[in-house]
């Protein structure tokens, strides 16, 4: 086992948490706060000591990098005109919070009220989730005592582990795009996180003084000093250990392998095993362990422990459609970063001030609005950037431009995650099925029209914007939905693959307290339990889920 193992052999614990990502780090902190609890946290990736994890713009070097990313790819998707996409998932301490966009967005109150309706449990209502968001929050708006806006006190926490700050940069071209959005009917907002996120403003970010603030720093840094918490990094969970002698199978531990030596060992849990391996890893581990659709398991000669047809189904994600506009008389990152002097200036600013482009989250300006009058709530979200490129990982264009990415917040398309073999090291088949419904294709076409309406407002006209992608010659619903398939890409929000639900819901994998149906001693606590995707970025809702679950686990509920 790794050199950070503090547990004497045999490897016996009260709780085992599989996955040291967004949810797992918080769970390890909360469960180990009681010194009587022996807690094991397991992470397949290594330490989060790669310098690009901590410099905000370093996501460019962490995504699709095997040091920090699982480097998954999706199955070719008909809705994307048979394209396959990279599908980043964090593989390091901190998980996706170490490689994601650092954007603090909770979603809408209606999301959580719908969860409460689906599960029949009011614990998931907005009013009952808000305290769990606030419990770990450290919001900049409360730093100086009483804020001018007293609503901060009602909606935000202070002194928690999870830091939320303003961005440390300014772009005039984004200011003018925001004003154009207002002219197009999108209201200004001061806060996207009060339950109704409609409006335009800059994203708030999970950073501290210009550095990325991941969940490893937030929740593990102090907790790792506790003698009752053991952290195994570079350790692959191969399968769950199941006892099937009783009337109901029980999860008693996990079988793991050291990533360096390949040596296998068994760790046991006297109370619970908690899967926090994410929307890809958690269903994969369940299926490998005989918990999932019986037809799939039998096809792969895996003994069926629990026939749960919903394991790996209900995959949802936000597909971003990236419109690019050439602009004139504007400073954008394209022009700054395409010269040696510009790069030197960018580096120097970050070195001296921890500000500027190197402190940038992947997106800076945010807007939530409606794709058409059919909706009485914001159903699309913008991530706007003062830069452009052909695809992630490609060089910036050599002309000044901005990118206005728009995503459907409430997609109706559903996909799946299914193992291909009994080999735990083989990546599963990931099929998000983007743009698989007529409703999703209509929202895609309408959202591109909203982008054009914003770009055509007087506040933005001084830049003489020219639509570079998808191209103004495309006008019909059919054209625009097809072009959306050409330029759409994941915004890295997979959820739902072990969703929670009522007892009579055959496709529900976990109950409303996240206990796996038909199996004792096993829960799933991560984004995979969401029955429907939230209306915004999914990292912060995942932390809220873990906060709530930790209380239940400690109480034995």
From TrEMBL:
Keywords: FAD, Flavoprotein, Oxidoreductase. InterPro entries: FAD/NAD-bd_sf, GMC_OxRdtase, GMC_OxRdtase_N, GMC_OxRtase_C. Its cofactor is FAD. FAD binds at residue 237. Pfam families: GMC_oxred_C (PF05199), GMC_oxred_N (PF00732). Belongs to the GMC oxidoreductase family. This is Choline dehydrogenase.
């Amino acid at each position: 086992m790794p050199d950070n193992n503090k547990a004497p052999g045999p490897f016996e614990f009260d709780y085992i948490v599989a996955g040291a990502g967004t949810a797992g780090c918080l769970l390890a902190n909360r469960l180990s706060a009681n010194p009587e609890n022996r807690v094991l946290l397991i992470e397949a990736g290594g330490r989060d000591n790669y310098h690009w994890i901590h410099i905000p713009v370093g996501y460019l070097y962490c995504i699709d990098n095997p040091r920090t990313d699982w480097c998954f790819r999706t199955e070719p998707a008909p809705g994307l005109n048979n394209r396959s996409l990279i599908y980043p998932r964090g593989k390091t301490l901190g998980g996706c919070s170490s490689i994601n966009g650092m954007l603090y967005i909770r979603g809408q109150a209606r999301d959580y009220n719908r969860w409460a309706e689906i599960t029949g449990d009011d614990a998931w209502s907005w009013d009952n989730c808000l305290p769990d968001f606030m419990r770990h929050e450290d919001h900049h708006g409360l730093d100086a005592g009483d804020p001018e806006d007293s609503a901060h006190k009602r909606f935000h926490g202070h002194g928690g582990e999870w830091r939320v700050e303003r961005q440390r940069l300014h772009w005039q071209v984004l200011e003018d795009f925001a004003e154009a959005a207002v002219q197009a009917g999108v209201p200004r907002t001061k806060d996207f996180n009060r339950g109704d996120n409609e409006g335009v403003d800059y994203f708030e970010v999970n950073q501290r003084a210009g550095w990325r603030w991941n969940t490893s720093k937030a929740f593990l840094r102090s907790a790792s000093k506790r003698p009752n918490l053991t952290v195994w990094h570079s350790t692959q969970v191969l399968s769950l250990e199941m006892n099937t002698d009783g009337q109901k199978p029980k999860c008693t531990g996990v079988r793991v392998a050291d990533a360096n030596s390949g040596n296998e060992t068994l760790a046991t849990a006297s109370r619970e095993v908690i899967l926090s391996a994410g929307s890809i890893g958690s269903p994969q581990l369940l299926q490998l362990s005989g918990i999932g659709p019986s037809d799939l398991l039998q096809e792969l000669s895996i003994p069926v422990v629990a026939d749960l047809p919903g394991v790996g189904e209900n995959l949802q994600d936000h597909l971003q459609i990236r419109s690019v506009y050439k602009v004139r008389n504007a400073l954008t990152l394209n022009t700054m970063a395409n010269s040696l002097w510009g790069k030197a200036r960018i580096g120097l600013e970050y070195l001296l001030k921890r500000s500027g482009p190197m402190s940038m989250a992947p997106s800076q300006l945010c807007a939530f609005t409606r794709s058409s009058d059919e909706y009485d709530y914001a159903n699309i979200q913008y991530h706007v950037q003062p830069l452009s490129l052909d695809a992630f990982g490609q060089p910036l264009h050599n002309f000044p431009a901005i990118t206005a990415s728009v995503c459907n917040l409430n997609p109706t398309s559903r996909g799946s995650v299914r193992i291909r073999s009994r080999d735990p090291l083989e990546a599963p088949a990931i099929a998000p099925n983007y743009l698989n419904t007529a409703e999703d294709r209509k929202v895609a076409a309408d959202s591109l029209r909203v982008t054009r309406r914003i770009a055509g407002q007087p506040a933005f006209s001084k830049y003489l914007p020219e639509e570079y992608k998808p191209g103004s010659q495309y006008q019909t619903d059919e054209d625009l939905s097809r072009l959306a398939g050409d330029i759409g890409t994941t915004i890295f929000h997979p959820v739902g693959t072990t969703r929670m639900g009522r007892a009579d819901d055959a496709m529900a994998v976990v109950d409303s307290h996240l206990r796996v149906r038909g199996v004792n001693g096993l829960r799933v606590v991560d984004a995979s339990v969401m029955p429907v995707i939230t209306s915004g970025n999914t990292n912060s809702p995942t932390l809220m889920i873990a906060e709530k679950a930790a209380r239940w686990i400690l109480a034995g509920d």
